[in-house]
Amino acid sequence: LFMGGSASTYTLIIASCVLLGIGEGVYYPLQSVFVKNWFPKQERGRANAAWVVGQSVAPAIAMPFFAYLIAGFGWRSNFWVCLVLGLIPFYLLWRHAADTPRQHKSINEAELAFIEAGQDTPGPKGEVIPLKARLSGFVGNYRYWLLVFWYLCLQCMYWGLITWLPSYLKTARNFSWQEMGWLASLPFVLSIIFKVSCGFLTDKIGRSAPILMAAMFFAGCCVYLGAVTEQKYLSAILLSLAVAFCTMGTPVAWTLLQGLIPGPSMSTASGIMNGLANGLASLAPAMIGFFINTTGQYSGGLLCLVFTGAAATIAAGVLAVKRY
Known about the structure:
Layout (H helix, E strand, L loop, with lengths): L1 H5 L3 H16 L1 H12 L5 H9 L1 H20 L2 H21 L12 H9 L13 H6 L5 H31 L4 H29 L3 H20 L3 H29 L5 H16 L2 H12 L2 H24 L3
């Protein structure tokens, strides 16, 4: 952020964005380990929902806020404000958190006993675990790879929708710029509600796979209905619901992962799942563009996401049959 705010060339701006993306990439595996270590399994749905919901709250607030900053103070102000905001969690984690409950100076015996009694697999003890040993904890587990595939489908649908939705609504559905203002925030507002609800639901029923199955099934249905309906407002609402449905599975997926993978392998398994899913999903906007060009219609691009949702539903269905 400092490099981007002080950049004098376009190349430096791009380099700062690349470094920012690399830094953000390590967050997912680390937070997954943190949640697994600090929360008993019956509370992880809500714990994962608490941090994942920030991905919906932030865009809903940030878009109008940073638009105001750019208009009043120039584009560099965005980098400086983000730099300052980033120091807040840095301080809180540095001063008030620890990798494991036993390492925290302020935790009492009752809290420690409650957390450790709800742990399904032991967490790391501080020693360095060889890579081969960490990989052996999940590489041969087909349930893990089904979850990775499901998460890849989710990311493809999410980034495909988020990338193409504004263009689709403006070009294919003829929305005005004034209407586009509230429509831009609608998917994120709905996602907040869905994510929080699913966090509580996961902890209540004690299973994750049925929710993952329902999330992508209804997301695919909403994309299909949003593409074929002739009512433009109904189309916008349905596609916004599709975003909310597919993202509501995010905290549930991480909760399931934390139950599947033993503690010493957690960071490695999380990094591989997040890296593969986001790396391959970055091609989703190009894939949708290809189908739009091939069919000559926006609906052609959207319908390819319906098949993505169907594939994810089948993968989650296998996990549901196995009682996950």
